[in-house]
Amino acid sequence: MATQSELLEQEQRLQFTRFDNHTALALGAQLLEAARQRELPVTISVRRNGQRLFHAALPGTSADNDEWIDRKSRVVDRYGHSSFLIGTRFRDKGTTFEESSRLDPDRYAAHGGVFPVIVRGVGPIGTVGVSGLPQAEDHAFVVEQLELFLNGRDGG
User: Fold this and answer.
1) C-alpha to C-alpha distance for 60 and 57, rounded to whole angstroms
2) Is the pTM of this model over 0.90?
3) What is the domain range of residue 24?
4) Both ends of the chain: CA-CA distance in Å?
């Protein structure tokens, strides 16, 4: 399991210089292609300012995965950090997000898989995420793809 400092470092490192609809579509397409190549049963979502700009559901997923993406995205929107980091913070305090956040677990899920879209000098402006794998794997896949995407585009 990743530590809070490792998860924060990822957020510091994986930032865009700009993020528009074209960037969102290209990022979503990259995640989709990587997931297809590995035959991963995931749903993929890229959002900016609450608007869903990219959404895809691969074989093996269901409407439940759409709900998980929505619930994890609400956590990122509320806290400005990855859903995995927020869940880890609660676990590190000896509790769970569900027990201690005072947020409706039918609307919020602090499970790994959704990462903030952060623009340098601006802050979090959206989310990129997947649902369908165990939470640490969901998170790791998104981080891996963000690293590849940002390194291939010279910072977005």
Assistant:
1) 8
2) yes
3) 4-152
4) 28
